[in-house]
Amino acid sequence: MSRAFLVVLDSAGCGHAPDAASFGDEGANTLLHIHKRVGLKMPNLMRLGLGQAVGISDVKAEGLHGVAREVSLGKDTPSGHWELSGVPVPWDWHYFPDTTPSFPPKISAEVAKFCGTDGILGDCHASGTAIIERLGEEHMRTGKPICYTSADSVFQIAAHEESFGLERLQQLCRHMAPILHAMNVGRVIARPFVGADAASFERTKNRHDYAMEVPSPTLLDWAKADGRATYGIGKIGDIFSGRGVDENRKGFDDVLMGHLSDLVDEAPDGALVFANFVEFDSLYGHRRDPEGYAAHLEWFDAAIGPILAKLRAGDLMLFTADHGNDPTWEGTEHTREQVPVVAAGVGTKDIGQVMFVDVAASVAVHLGLSERGPGRSFL
């Protein structure tokens, strides 16, 4: 049986979506603007058709290529990944206002009660690295957790792995998750960090997302129902609350690339591997660092070359994204964009413009699954 590898380059959008103006993102284009600002040398993905999808090359492609648009109303991780797996988000997410304080008093009080403190720190929209640098020392001194949000539907809690405790942070997030999910807040995110002072604080690989339950079966569930082995790489297990994932392998992006390489070697016939590489978004998009983003794209392309060369006959490896995060754009948040769809293993084809759910349908068709979801296969 054929295998499928669905690989998400988190935030690597390729042009504003038709409804981008309603998000304040008309004109955003993550990959094109990085290319114009820095230049991109990505021979492996360009050979497959990334240049055609982004509009920066007219060289004949050797792979499947096109762009996809979503119908879910968010420009965030759950909306993008759920819809790519065949399930558009059927509700409006709850977003916290860009004010200080940002959270309802009952939410802040519940966090403080759990921690045994007389309050919380932060209570605002913020960059994670910036707020840890600003409030980390006070957090270590007082024990108050740092709570912050963004333009996404998230409630993030940062705490020191040693002085506060990693397990205690995770227990706090597990306690708060159902309360916030009942408000349609998509994710509660544990953001542990280490270091002795503001100059040395750094976040660790032990981030954990407590996401809302997907409302209906996804591509992962369809594969499991048909007896296929399923693997998550990166934060896939968190995004889908562990549902439909036999095994999830985590780490920073360089470690994740090793996991992907190993699974190309090891995954059995008929397997589905779903990977997310988050550092495009977390380290470079939000920090508005086009040079860093470009370097990470080029690292990814160089590392994926030997992995593509190892694919078996009949394998599909499909590259896409979940939203945009144009590092040349104003602010620090995601941008509402269409995303590239580029694939190896299924011949040369220009698929034009498709929908996110069509990705799930196409992977399902390639694997010969019983369920296809609401999408239409472009294979």
Gist of the model:
It contains 13 helices and 14 strands.
How do the strands and helices of this protein lay out in sequence?
Elements: E1 4-9, H1 30-37, H2 43-48, H3 50-54, E2 64-69, H4 77-84, H5 105-115, E3 121-125, H6 128-142, E4 146-149, E5 154-160, H7 161-181, E6 187-194, E7 202-203, E8 208-211, H8 219-225, E9 230-233, H9 236-239, E10 247-249, H10 253-266, E11 272-277, H11 279-285, H12 290-309, E12 316-320, E13 339-344, E14 349-355, H13 356-367
Parallel strand pairs: 1-11, 1-12, 2-14, 3-4, 5-6, 9-10, 9-11
Antiparallel strand pairs: 2-13, 4-5, 6-7, 6-8, 12-13
Helix pairs in contact: 1-12, 5-7, 10-12, 11-12
Describe this entry's structure for a reader.
With 379 residues, this protein is of the alpha/beta class. The chain is built from 13 helices and 14 strands. It has an eight-stranded mixed beta sheet, sandwiched between helices. Strands 3, 4, 5, 6, 7 and 8 form a six-stranded mixed beta sheet that branches. A hairpin with a 7-residue loop joins strand 6 and strand 7 (202-203). Helix 5 crosses helix 7 (161-181). The longest helix has 21 residues, at 161-181. The relative contact order is 0.23.
Order of helices and strands: EHHHEHHEHEEHEEEHEHEHEHHEEEH
Q: Rg from C-alpha positions?
A: 20 Å
Structural class by SSE content: alpha/beta
Distance between the termini: 17 Å
Mean pLDDT: 96
Given as residue ranges, the uncertain stretches (5+ residues, pLDDT < 50) are none
Major sheet description? 8 strands, mixed
How much helix is in the residues?
Answer: 25-40%
For the secondary structure, the number of strands is: 14
Range of strand content:
15-25%
Instruction: Assign an overall shape.
Output: globular
The strand order across the widest sheet is: 10-9-11-1-12-13-2-14
Put simply, the count of helices is 13
